[in-house]
Each structure stands twice: as C-alpha cells, then as structure tokens.
Design goal:
homodimer, 27 strands, alpha+beta, 484 residues, six-stranded mixed β-sheet
C-alpha cells in the first residue's frame, strides 16, 4: 500500500490546485466538457456540506403572534362593555384564550425545514404512535462515505428510545432514555440498528406531538412524532328512505297557527318524516300527531337554545332546519338536498331558498394579535362553485332553510346564550369546521305574516340586548372588532 | 486555460485509479491518516448520492387496510342482527364508512420520507395556506456544485404555482400552472427565484392537503401543503365564582321524591348554582325553584336523549353530571373538580366517586379491517397518574358523577338512540377526543333505593332492547366485536 499512499498525496495536491482554480475562476467547471460533468455525477465524493453554504436554521419555528388586525369602518367590539368591567373581562379573556391555545395544540404547530445535503434519511410526516406503546420508527438510515466509526444520535422530549433485541457487540448507549447513541464500524450494521429503533411516549396524552432530533457529525435534522389515541367511528344508518335519513327541526314560539300550517304542509308529501318541535312559548299548547316530538322549554328560553335542543334529539344522519312560519310547497323536495350531500360527503350544510330569498354570505376573518383579538366582517358573496353542481356555491353561511349533517352541526352547536336575533353567529362558530354550500332552486315558502305584538316584542329586542350580545362576542370569539 | 485543462484530465485519471482502490480495498480510507479524513470534511466534493446507496422509495405511503382484529372470548357484534337484514346492513355500513374515511381525510394521511444526500432544502411541515390565497413557500433552496445551468421544478395537484414579480431575463416556465420550472446559470439567482415561489390552492376546501414534488436533476423530494380555513375561537367567560363556571345537570324520570332530595342537598352549599333538569316522565310534575330550568320531553324519550338535551342548554364552561338519586354531602365540593380542570386545560372530564364507588375503566380498541370493522373491550384499569395530582389517574371512562368541559362533551354528545342502559357508550364515542381522569376523594352520596316497579320496568329493559342495541353499535361504531 506504500506506493499507493504516495500517489494519493500527489492527487491531493492536484485537487487543492483545482480547488484554487475553482475559487479564482468561478466559471471553471462550466468551461469543462459535459463528459466531466457527467463523470462528476458518479464520483464517490461524499455528502458533507460545502463551506459556501451557511448552515440553515431549520427550526422548529413557532408562528409568532400574528399582527394586530384593523377594524375598517367597524366599531371595536369592546365599545359596549361597561367601562368598569372591561379590565376584569380582559384579564379573564386572556386566560381563557391561553387555555384555548394549549387545547388546540398551538405549541406543536411549528414550521420545520429539511436541510440540504445531509446524509440522514428519516420520516418527514406520518409517523404516528399511540400513547405509551413502543413503536418502530420507519425509514431511518445513514448514507455516507466510509468512516472508521459511524456514530448517530437521537433525542426526544416526551418519550424514550430503544433498539430492539440488541446483540452482543452492538454499541447502543441510552436504551430506554430520551437520548440514544448508536455507533458501529460498519455502515450496514449501523443502518440495521437504526431499522430496529423504537419510540415510546412516556406520559399519557390522547392528542399531542413530540419532536425527534437526529444527528450525525455536524448534521442535525428534526422530525415530528404524532402521539394520539385511535377514535371509534360514529356512523348513522341512513336506512332505506328519506324518513330514516332526515328529521325536520322547528323552533316554536307563540305562533301555533303558523306552526300548524307548516306541519300540515310537510305532511302532504312527507306523511311519515319525524318532526321535532322545540317550544319555549309562555303558555305552551299541545302539538300532537304521529312522528312529532314536542319538547317544552322554560318560557322564552330563546332562539338558539331551542335550535340546540332540537339538534340534540336528532337520531338521523341529516336534519332539515325550517322556521315555524315557513310552508312546504309542491316543489319542496328534501331528497334534492340529500342527493347533493351524498354525492359530496365532505359537505356539512346545504342551504336552499325561502321564497325568493337565497341569502348567503362570506366571512372575512383575521386572527389578529393574541392580546387584541381578531376582526370579522360579513360580505354577501360566495367562494366558488361546487364542482358538478351548477346551481350550488361554497359560502360561509346560508339562509334559515338548510339540510345539515347532524354530527357535524352538533360539534359546532348553537350557542344557547343567544336568545333572540341570531343566525350568522352559528356560522361564525362553525368557520373552518363546516363546509357550507348554497343552492339555487331548493325552495320553500314563507307564510304571510300575522305577527302578534307579543311575538314582535320578543323578536325585536331592546338595545340593551344587542349591547350584552356584543360583550358576549367580544369575549367568546376573542374579537377586536366585528361587523355584520 | 489550455494547460490547466490538461492537468485536469491527469487528475481525473488519478481519481479513477483511487476509485478502483476504494472498491478493491474497502478499508483504504480508514487506513489513511486522520489528516486526510479531516481534509475530506472540508473538500468541495458535491452532494450527489453515492452509487452504493439505492434510491429509496420516499412515499407517499398510504396506511394499508389494517389487519382484521380478533374477538378474544367475545361474541361477534353482528350476531344479534336479524339474518335477513344482515346483507343490506353490511352494504349500508360499508358505504357510510367509506364516506367517514373521506371526511376524516384518510387519503391525506400518508407516510413520507426525507431522502439522504439531496441538494434540496424545503419545508417539512407547518407550511399552511388558506384556500385560494396566494402564499409564499418558505425555506426552498438548492445547495449544490457549480453547474453550467441550474434547473429545478415543482409539481402540485390541488393548486397552482407562481414566482412573484419575475424580472426580465429570469427563466420561469409554467407560471400559474400545476407544474413550474425554474432555471438559471447562477445558483444565487435560482435561490432568489425560489424565495419568491408561491402556492395558491385552486379548488375551495376548508380542510385538506396537497403534496408538492420538488425536483433537481435525479433528486426528487415531497412535502405536504396544509390547506385550511382559520377557525374563530369559542371561549366561555368563567365569571367570578362557581355559579358562573358550572351548571348542574340531572336527568329525571318518575323519581321526583329522590330528585327533590337531591336539589335540596345541592342548595345547602350552592344556593345559586343553575340546575338543568331534563325530564321524560310519563306524567311530568312541576319542578320549581330559583335557577332551576325544567325541560319536559316526550314520555320515556330516554336516558341519553335526556343527557344530550341537558348538555345542549348549558351556558357555562363546565357542567357537573349527577343522577337524580344522588345526594350532595358536606364534603361534596364542586370547586375541587374545577381546580383540577383549570390546572390542566387539556382535561375534558374529571370523574369523582359515588359513595364508595369510583368505577373507572380503560377501553382496548383495534381498528380492524375496513370490511369487518374494529374490536373493543372494556377493562377496569387506568392508564397513568395525572402529573401533580396524586389521587387522579387517566382513564377512558368514569362513574356517573363527573365534571366535564361543556364544549368538549358537546362535540362528542350522548347518542339519543340509547334509551335506557347506556354509559360506556358515551366514552366509546369520546375515545381519542376526550381526555378523562378519575379522582379519589371527590365524593357524592347515593340515596337509599326506593325504586318503583314502574321505574324498574324501564330501567331494566327486555332482551329485545339489548339486541337492538348491539345491532346499533355493529353499524354505528363499525365494530366486528364488542364486549363490556
């Protein structure tokens, strides 16, 4: 091997010379022939990073506090809060928001980069474990030049690492600890050890995440480990006809005449469909009939309380929401809604039109800073057409006549605090959770109004109410300003 | 440059010779002096992959259908399904499960690997966009050897790519298309172009994902793009005392004597806390008192329907569940539950003990195959202690006396189909969604039983009921076998 070593040093000298050329004359390589380029692709040069490139910061980068949002021609949401309560309210809101951030896993919500030119192979995403169960980490490998000794290490925070059935002579330090080192004089053995590396979360949690730091020499990479408990599916048996698929929901208050007109109109085409009536009238009257469930609430308990009660009693996959003064027409076909929902399982709410009214809107929401809160406004626009359905458009909210997926709406709910005027509020709570479309031609009628004064006095609340409401949203939705 | 090229070829020859040596004598490098090793670390050898290492398959790997689970000493869940209905039921269940998989984004749930030794830098996770909004892709870069021309390309499926304000002379093909190519004779310019690369989802969706394929020469990597709509926070104002933090919920049926004993016992220490009573008695009696809300349901509507109704009416951050024949003792302190919840915001349910009974359990669940469904059994064990609270242990289900986070329980809900015997079923539906602990010493009393025959006949349903129930779970929870 002696002569060989001499020749080797000679080559090193030549290489250094080339090197110099490379830096002196940046275009040197480009002037060299393609043959050389293609040769270089198969050279056995190893994968160390080139000094030219500074080591990147690969994270984890936490999303910093978003910038404050501005209330374009809206009033700040706190303007109705009694001055003497504002400070306390602010403190409580800040604490609740802090808890909300923890619950929604904000601290795990980070940006991580993959650095270039590292000899490490590892799982980028999709490595999931169940809490406190030993699980093999897929895809770990080292691919590098020959070394006297190969040494890699892994670090985690919320669990422990271990290599399965380590044999005599395999070098593994830190079995069942947070920091594990593996070394070997054979790259193949090292990769074999990596293929037997497991992770076990050490604290119980049903939905969280850990980060693994994987290191070789001056290379370090990070990859996420998802820790969560499996959920059991919850399915609704749609049965064989519309009666086993849909329940009709009504909130009743005082207007029994209109309610009976509605019920009779439903029975014309749907003699057997279940109707749930949530009733908070001051002096409840009996509402009888087959497949009618009548729930009596404390007097004037409110509009959304009634909606939420009705939804809580549904046992079908879908429900149809109607107001007590609507009326089914010959062209009112519940099946048309169901067809759209079944065709696009991601949909949660399909809105129709009441007479000529096909009210629908878009919500423009900015998170804002965690101190001030967000900004939300409502604009009457839609997002985009629903592919395959010319007459349907994605929106954030629709009119009071819609078919909804029971399970999805239950997750959002109708806030029972909202006693009277309330509608958009449901869609605000559902933003990001409910996929909503509005469709032309799915029609129901509106009865002529014979509103009693008594009803009117409840339907149109005093100013004090809307002030309470603003205070409620200031806190509940963590808003800086609101307008709709 | 002529002489220089000649010397260069000479060197190439030497390098090939070395090469040969390397393959003939694998230990050659190890025998060379440390000086050479350290030199090699700073050599400008580029990052092409070494032929030794086969190109790995980096995915995306879809989780294949899990293996069927086995019913250890349990009966299959379909045994109670009437034979003539089984086939239809199976078909419908398969379709509902298919929709469920789509809704839960199973097709986006993939494993992706980071290959070693690629000159590409890119975001591994945390790159999130809102639907149809142009967003800069962070962290894209190429770090490689000198080339005559540098060429990278990106491909996406659910959106389009574009480089911001492209200047005269910058080579970008496929602006606003799914497939974009960038090339430059300067690495710096190429990386500058990459730093201006944006993604815009082209179809509207509130919760989905795209995959970007990033390529340079024979290197390809994949990274995920999360597409989702921002949600508005929903917070509860805890107010200043337990009355504004907690509502007590009771389901009443026939046993008004016990109910009144309970209510009076609550009023001893909690004169002002709100009590919600969901009542499906056959002949409802009035339940009156300050801060009592009495809801009258259709007769014998059922146990879970009542629970779900009560929860639907809560306006406080937490609720306390009690049965109508419980009784508050001097040592019954709602505040003790609240303290634990406030200390650990991730918690959703804190269970106490009824007399001496601190019933709690663990659920063992296997997904099973998508054809057959899962296997679930209940064992009376806990997971682990709750850090910081010696007397509390993580579990999957607890006794009928618990404090719960209103918003979290609403998301799971009590299935109103379950009319009588039902308790574990709620925790099955909540598996993976509700973080549950059971705590020693949080005590409430149980009244002596004076059960009427009538009550008993409802409380202990005929066998036909439990058969219906099994059929229900066979479908609803997509189960192959169930035992508890």
């Amino acid at each position: 091997m002696h002569g060989c070593r001499r020749t080797f040093f000679i080559v090193i000298l030549f290489m250094c010379f080339l090197f110099a050329l490379f830096y002196i004359d940046g275009d040197f390589w480009t002037k060299t022939s393609p043959r050389i380029m293609s040769f270089s692709r198969f050279s056995s040069c190893h994968s160390e990073q080139i000094p030219d490139f500074p080591k990147p910061n690969i994270g984890p980068f936490h999303n910093d506090n978003p910038t404050p949002c501005t209330c374009q021609n809206t009033q700040p949401a706190n303007q109705y809060v009694p001055k003497d309560e504002l400070e306390d309210l602010h403190k409580r809101r800040a604490e609740e928001f802090r808890q909300h951030q923890i619950r929604s896993g904000k601290e795990n919500d980070v940006l991580i980069l993959v650095p270039a030119n590292t000899p490490l192979q590892y799982p980028m995403r999709g490595f999931r474990v169940t809490p406190m169960n030993k699980t093999l980490i897929p895809g770990l490998a080292l691919q590098t030049q020959k070394r006297a000794v190969y040494k890699v290490s892994l670090r985690v925070q919320k669990g422990v690492l271990s290599v399965l059935n380590v044999q005599e002579g395999e070098k593994v330090d830190g079995q069942n600890e947070k920091h594990l080192n593996i070394s070997s004089s054979s790259l193949q053995q090292l990769n074999d050890l990596l293929s037997r590396l497991t992770y076990t979360s050490s604290s119980y949690h049903i939905k969280t995440e850990d980060l693994a730091y994987f290191t070789f020499e001056n290379h370090e990479v990070i990859f996420p480990i998802e820790i969560r408990r499996l959920s059991v599916p919850v399915l609704f048996d749609p049965g064989k006809d519309v009666n086993s698929q849909v329940t009709v929901l009504v909130k009743a208050f005082l207007r029994y005449k209109e309610l009976n007109v509605l019920i009779n109109s439903i029975r014309w085409n749907y003699p057997k469909i279940k109707i749930i009536v949530a009733d908070d009238s001051l002096n409840p009257e009996k509402v009888v009939g087959d497949n009618i469930e009548h729930y009596i609430m404390p007097p004037a308990q409110g509009w959304f309380a009634g909606r939420n009660l009705a939804v809580s009693q549904v046992t079908t996959k879908y429900f149809l929401w109607v107001d007590d003064d609507f009326v089914f027409l010959n062209e009112t076909h519940i099946e048309s809604f169901v067809k759209i929902m079944e065709a696009v399982p991601e949909l949660d709410v399909v809105g129709g039109q009441v007479g000529k009214n096909q009210f629908s809107f878009k919500l423009q929401y900015e998170e804002g800073s965690s101190e001030e809160g967000g900004c939300i406004t409502r604009v009457s626009r839609t997002h985009a057409p629903l592919p395959g359905f010319d007459s349907c458009f994605f929106a954030d909210g629709v009119v009071n006549y819609f078919l909804a997926r029971t399970e999805a709406v239950r997750r959002v709910g109708f806030d029972p605090v909202l006693k009277r005027v309330a509608h958009t509020e449901f869609f605000i709570d559902g933003l990001g959770d409910l996929l909503v479309v509005t469709c032309k031609g799915l029609k129901i009628g509106h009865q002529k109004h014979s509103t009693t004064n008594k009803y009117g006095s409840f339907r149109h609340p005093p100013k004090s109410d809307s002030q309470k409401k603003m205070t409620h949203h200031f806190f509940k939705n963590h808003l800086k300003c609101i307008k709709y």
